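Notes on consecutive records. When two proteins share a document, each keeps its own sequence and its own token line. Never mix them. Below: protein one.
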Amino acid sequence: MYTSIVPNRRQLLIQDLRFYAFVHYTVNTFTNREWGSGKESERVFAPRAQNAEQWCEAIAAAGMKGVILTCKHHDGFCLWPTKTTAHSVKNSPYKGGRGDVVREVSDACRKYGLKFGVYLSPWDRNCPLYGTPAYNDFYIAQLTELLTNYGDIFMLWLDGACGADAAGQPKQKYDFERIWRTAVELQPEIVMSGCAPDVRWIGNESGKTRESEWNVVPRFAYDQQNLAANCQQDDDLRKFQKRCQDAMLPDLGSREFLANYDDFMWYPAEVDVSIRLGWFYHPLQRYTLKSLRHLMKIYYTSAGSNALLLLNVPPNRKGLLPKADVKRLREMGAWLQKEDSLVLDARRTDADGGFTVALDFPRQSVDRVRLSEDTTKSQRVEAFEIYANGQRVFRGTVIGFSRIAIFDRPVTTDRLEVRITRCRNEPYIDRAEVCATGAYRPW
């Protein structure tokens, strides 16, 4: 019944973080592009007031637990003084060529209690070795520098974008197996996401999720060729949308869907979305900053619905997060903190072999329950209902490692019952918390 499929040690670590930041920052920030050509002069990278601590302070205030920095994007420009190429921050005006953005961000993360992760694009439009077997050695050398010189790295984010030859075929065959092996050898606790074996891409970049997000999925979702094909191979909108549709199959883990396969794996979903329209900063996109309501809805349908949330926050040309973005992050964090403060001291009683969880507390208005399963015993719950005063106040499907069940309207009561109505064998509910009314209501 699929309950033998459980997360590995690294996957258990990442599900406890749930909400973390992407920081897209490179020469594109200064050229007003999303994908650089690789021909940009190093002198383009010239932030006047860069402050990684400002970034991390705002990110931590939002309630995020980590930061992933684009140490190298497709343009090949490196934000650290790498020994592998001259196309790096060491030949830029920043700090007279003595700057190290990766060092600054990793240090700032630790100051503000955040985990630090790296994005290292396999595509490199500047490297003359790209398109040859020698390029894979070049890439491993860069990866080794990042994973040995900057302390503990919680995540390696791998993009599958790949330049094409004249016939439209991928120019470089990435040695993903070697990349994954090297990463774990150098950082045993590292989680790998994107074109990687630990965390899967949700299938879009707009913050949309499935009604039922399963961690136990058919192994085809991990197939290396499918991964590479689905991760931003080109900028043709119609082709990209088609790949998104393929990756966003409405059902990846129900019993009915799994019955068609015979090989399965634990592969949680990650929702990657930007706080603005673009991934990099663009001056004319200041009006595309997502509203608080939009961001909170994304949060509750991802981090609150058994998925990981990776929210991108791009610094501007000064090297700072824009004031409006910082304000929005602080608003988001204040509401999440408010929810934490409203968790009641409820007495829990399990009955019916764990299929009913009762929560008793002083009579008051409540509007949500926060649930999680003990995923060391897999993901089991397929459907559940919540009752108050003899009436059903919520009906849901999966729980997984995080489910925030928000009622249609607050209810005044002194007892809630969570009833598991469909399950793969017996349930193992790890957390069951009830919150007083007063937290953010996104719908």
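Protein two starts on the next line and is unrelated to protein one.
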Amino acid sequence: MTGFWRTHSSRLITLFLLLPALVGFFGLFFYPMLLTVILSFRPEGQAIGWTLENYTRFLADPDGRWVILLTFILSLGGTALSVLLSVPLALILREKVRGHRFYRLMVLVPLVVPGLIGALGLLLFWGTRGWFNLFLLQFVPFVERPVAVNYTIHGLILFYVWLYFPYTCITTLSSLESLDRSIEEAGEVSGATRWQVLRYIVLPLITPGILAGSVLTFMAAFGAFSVPLIAGGNYRPLAVEIYKQIAVPIPARWSAASAIAIIMGVLQVIFLSLYMRFVRRGGGTGGPS
């Protein structure tokens, strides 16, 4: 026994230390995921049997395909606008202007505010009866009716940008701060304009940071729930559709909700695979490998 302990003590101690993490992983991730997969193939309301009906019904339904398309429209639109906003903002925050620490802190606000609170705050400001529209109706003569922001696709995209652009901004700013400024100075000494330095030197070098932030933004937007639930109206992306399958029908359609959740996860995996393939081909380095 003593010899066995001396031989395997380090392995046993390591296993003992990892045991809580393994139990947590199994209980909080693996088991719920396995249960979701099994439920997605069960006939609705039955504990036995296997069927693909939950998948085929959703994918064959025009409303189901529209939900998938809408999810991509919102996620890609929010990601694209986040990048367009984050790059110039990161370039400004890179400079040690007066109050730059306060401005950086403001960028992080959407990350620390709970999604539900952020969605309600956006509605209070941008909603049909929000402060923004009250200001327009009160002080802008040619505005006769509220500007529709909530319950619209473009409004949801704007909400997504506010909530998720910090991901792209932080990673872009991190890439900029790790960039050696002597490279830019060398370009300027060689006769390049500031625009040429930005386009041909800076942007290619910070592209990996931009792409990393874009993936984080896309994944967060793809799984967004609180904002479209509150401000989406009839526009329901996949996460809200899963909730609707459970909360609205009586009894709840757990098998249908599980199938939609699996479809959502598969689409995210496909997107990540395409992204990794793009990076391996040199898309994340500003040029061919």
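For the record: The mean pLDDT is 83.
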